[in-house]
Specification:
Elements lengths: L2 H13 L3 E3 L5 E5 L4 H9 L15 E5 L3 H15 L17 E3 L5 E3 L4
Antiparallel strand pairs: 1-2, 2-3, 4-5
Length: 114
């Protein structure tokens, strides 16, 4: 995990007044200020797959810090989603994150084993 990519992401979020819970790990919690499930679905429509929601934090979602290219795709998609844009598709995103694996509990996660 590259700490500089994480810090650049935090700086980007702060510069746009997005609220998040900072972390020293490879993930952090992001407050979407709306039902997080809506944001998760809108991001997936843009081929950017982010974490799940927790009942105690219905507007927060987990973000895993990826490569610089992946985080740039995340930033572009998140900005578009938060501004209500309907433009979809980010071809720059790694093919590893373009497919999803479903699990019996109903969760669906990027298939990164390819």
């Amino acid at each position: 995990m590259n700490a500089s990519i994480r810090q650049k992401t935090f700086d980007w979020l702060a510069s746009r007044s997005y609220s998040y819970v900072p972390s020293e790990s490879n993930c952090f919690m992001l407050d979407t200020k709306r039902p997080a499930k809506e944001v998760i679905d809108a991001m997936a429509a843009r081929n950017v797959f982010i974490g799940r929601i927790w009942p105690v934090w219905p507007t927060y979602t987990r973000i895993t810090v990826g490569t610089q290219q992946e985080m740039e795709a995340f930033q572009a998609a998140f900005d578009a989603v938060m501004k209500g844009s309907t433009t979809t598709g980010y071809s720059a995103l790694s093919p590893l994150f373009r497919t999803r694996r479903s699990y019996p509990d109903g969760q669906s996660w990027p298939n990164v084993s390819s």
